Amino acid sequence: NFILFLVQAPVLAALLNIVFKNPGRYLPLSFYFCLTVSTIWIGGVSAVRAIAAEWSVLKREYRAGLSINAYLLSKLIHILFSSFLSGVLFFAVLVFLFHGYDLNRWLLLLICSGTVSGAVLGLCISSFSTHYGIAVSALPLVFIPQIFFSGILIPFDRMSQIGVFLSQLTVSRPLFAIYKQICILQTSLGTPGEWQTLFFLLTGLIILTRIAIYFHIVDR
């Protein structure tokens, strides 16, 4: 896991450099979409095994008096710290490879927001999985809709009502919208509404994670 942690961000950054080797004077919107999905993936992969690999230990510790809230908080602190480091590493490699472009502190903020969002999503998937192998298998099933419903493939006004509804449940939609506002429209920090949407989605994922842990380890 540690080797994957160190390798995946530079590898993805290098692949982006191959794809966008000569994009012109400005980096296109598709570049920022790739950043959106890449950072969600980086965070998700790093956290998807965190809970599912510990069920037997967690049940035993819970019977011994471990607080679910304390356990979840410790996991959140760990994955948020590791995903933040992944984001910083990813940004550093991007700055080195795309040295001719203005990749500033706002982009660092967005990249770290993406890795953190992906980590919370991965932790939620892990809490609903009975085994870490199931969690790893489920990650692509949750990740792919982040691409489909982000708004890059088809405008929301041309999407079905079900598609629009599902897009509101993805972390990629508000995150990609913030990328567009800051990196394309040059709006400082984007609009508060998108940040609030992202915050509420992540809060909802954490609540779902707490519920899933409870029902998994509490004897009924």
Summarize the structure in short.
By secondary structure, this protein is an all-alpha fold.
Descriptive notes:
It is a single chain. With 220 residues, the chain is mostly helical. The chain contains 9 helices and no strands. The model has no long low-confidence stretch (mean pLDDT 90). It has one domain. Helix 2 packs across helix 5. The two termini are 34 Å apart. Helix content is 74%, strand content 0%.
Percent in helix: over 70%
Whole-number count of domains: 1
Question: Whole-number average pLDDT?
Answer: 90
Parts with pLDDT < 50 across at least 5 consecutive residues: none
Measured by DSSP, the beta-strand proportion falls in: under 5%
Radius of gyration: 18 Å
User: How many H/I helices?
Assistant: 9
What composes the largest sheet? none
* Basic shape: globular
Q: Span between N and C termini?
A: 34 Å
* Total DSSP E strands: 0
Question: H/E series, N to C?
Answer: HHHHHHHHH
Oligomer: single chain
Structural class of the secondary elements?
mainly alpha
